[in-house]
Amino acid sequence: MRLDLHVHSTASDGLLSPAEVVGLAADGGLDLLALTDHDTVAGIPAAMDAAAELSIRIIPGIEVSSTHEDAEYHILGYFVDPQADSIQAHERHALEGRESRMDEMVARLRGQGLLIEMADVLDAAGPDRSVIARPHLARALVSKGYAKAVPDAFDRLIGDEHPAFVPTRLATPEEAIRLILDAGGIPVWAHPPMDALYELLPAFVEAGLQGLEVYRPRATPRRIRKLERAAEADGLIMTGGSDFHDPERGYPLGSFFVTEEEVGALIEAGGF
Fold it and tell me: Model confidence over 153-164: pLDDT tens digits?
């Protein structure tokens, strides 16, 4: 069985609709897909409907943005109930918080002499989005001629280390973990940075973290071994995924996958 446990759609900052993502995943030979849009579950019903017509199963998921000491950490939630009060409340909070954050980033870019407006970001996001995210700003910068491509916009203008960057500040990591647990989900630390892993992991585990995202397309064998050892030491589930956003950026959907042997503990915990 081929699985991809980290995929985005136009409900957040992906380029394809949930139905298009599911169709592409099926064409790419995937058997199971987790839709994990940033701070929203809005795309899950459409993904489920599309999957019902194809030979692919969907895990309802979310990627919750959190902030600790002005650094962002993302917590994936698997097998969440999209109608849970905690998820619905976070989604409402995220809609307002992300737009305020984007207003501030646009203002900082204008202060640097870049003539960009919030309307440009909303146009780049399109009508199907539920939340506003940095890739939307990156696409707006490309369309205005300030960047050659989305990666270039991040590298030179809006990456974490640049003056225009503003943390999301929607929740603390512990709050993100709890809201996923309250929704009946399994919280997993997405792409954990190695420089913060050992410092923060004990507090995250105490808050209820149940897994680490270990397997990713560009992960080196050394990084994978370190994450595997960290997960084993704390009895955590291991997961993996492509973090797919755009068919023209990164790996084609289905070209990277994890196997049931690698992530079987998650599948078993979710009752699949």
Answer: 999 999 988 999
